[in-house]
Design goal:
The protein has about 140 residues and is α/β, with parallel strands linked by helices. It is built from five helices and four strands, in the order βαβαβαβαα.
Length: about 140
């Protein structure tokens, strides 16, 4: 499964941890490129981003969400979700992506095994492509009505 990690860049340690856990479980993981705001800046980290650079990275991250099967929301114990993350959640919802929020869903993802049988993998890709085509046709028909 292709998963995109979303949440505040202030939780960089959690991003790294979940990227490792999910990757070891066989998932393709999209993550953030760097801390994105000057409030997240710590000595020794790269210079804070310019507004243009931050906007570019935000758009790239939306593309990562688009290319994923689902998103995994990263928060702290208080459940902090900032404006950028709210936008990412809404984008994922608009695209019909699965949104994994709880510890239980993360545990479910890490229990999945990766099927390395090429024949099964090809059948899965073809099946998923057929579902996407059927979904697109259905939406096209709805728009015509």
């Amino acid at each position: 499964m292709k998963l995109c990690l979303i949440g505040s860049s202030r939780f960089m340690d959690r991003y790294l941890e979940l990227n490792r856990i999910l990757s070891l479980a066989g998932h393709v993981v999209y993550s953030i490129a760097t801390r994105s705001s000057s409030s997240d800046y710590t000595p020794g980290s790269p210079d804070p981003l310019t507004p243009f650079e931050k906007e570019t990275l935000d758009l790239v991250h939306l593309r990562k969400i688009q290319e994923s099967d689902g998103v995994v929301l990263i928060t702290d114990d208080e459940g902090y979700v900032g404006e950028s993350t709210k936008r990412e959640i809404k984008w994922a919802q608009m695209l019909g992506k699965n949104i994994y929020l709880t510890k239980e869903s993360l545990e479910m993802l890490t229990r999945e095994t990766v099927d390395l049988d090429p024949a099964k993998s090809i059948r899965r890709v073809l099946r998923d492509e057929k579902r996407r085509e059927e979904h697109a046709k259905l939406h096209a028909n709805e728009e015509e009505d």
